[in-house]
Amino acid sequence: MHCTTPTPSAPAASGDRLDTLWYQTVSLGVVALVAGGALALAHTATGPVIAAAEAHDVATSLAQVLPENFHDNDLLADTTTVTGTDGRPLTVHRARQGGEVVAVIYQMSGKGYAGPVRLVMGVDRNGRITGVRVTGHAETPGLGDKIEAARSPWIHGFAGKSLEDPVPARWAVKKDGGEFDQFAGATITPRAVVGTVKAGLDLYLTQRAAMFADPAASSTEEAKP
């Protein structure tokens, strides 16, 4: 019986391997290019929508710390910059009534129980708080989150307060001998908010001239003969 020994197949030529690698590289490049283009297109399409939503959220937060009908200007557009408590530039929004700056609004940040607590506060020309709202935190649900206006009226208690009412030594929670209530089972969070608002008033005291300065009005006065 005659058996035929299989002939081993010839190894692939190096040129074939190079052609395969070249094809795979080009394919991956095309896929990456298409994916990148799709992402860029999506960003271009949704970018303005996201920016508009963010602007709306900021405008809403700013308006919440002012009494109704307290201003007649665009709070987002009317801003100035001062040096914040951390030494960095701080954007200050100015509320006007009939062209006169009647209050300023700015953001502050303090250290809560679970992380930073961010808030926005408004202060009028007399140094009295027009309102405070917490804009971001990671405090314990059911305890520390009572600093939110939607969870508790506690945050409304800052309206009308100043460095004279109460006096600086009373700017603390009652457990620390101060003016403000703490929460049952959660003292660190309200303590952080009280301290942050107090720091905001201290900043107002040192930066008031810059906050209320009106370069446009100054330029007009200097231009008069």
Mean pLDDT: 83
Outline the low-pLDDT stretches.
217-225
DSSP strand (E) fraction?
15-25%
The number of helical segments is 3
Run of helices and strands: HEEEEEHH
Shape: extended
Helix vs. strand class: alpha+beta
- N- to C-terminal distance: 123 Å
Radius of gyration: 30 Å
Helical proportion? 25-40%
Transmembrane segments: 21-42
Family: Belongs to the RnfG family.
Protein name: Ion-translocating oxidoreductase complex subunit G
Cofactor: FMN
State the main characteristics:
extended; alpha+beta; disordered C terminus; single chain; 225 residues; 3 helices; 19% strand; five-stranded antiparallel beta sheet
Describe this structure in words.
This protein has 225 residues and is α+β, with helices and mostly antiparallel strands. Helices cover 38% and strands 19% of the residues. The protein is built from three helices and five strands; from the N terminus they run H-E-E-E-E-E-H-H. A five-stranded antiparallel sheet has the order 1-2-3-4-5, with helices on both faces. The longest helix is centred in the first third of the chain and has 51 residues, at 14-64. The chain is extended and about 85 Å long. The chain starts with 13 loop residues before the first helix and ends with a helix.
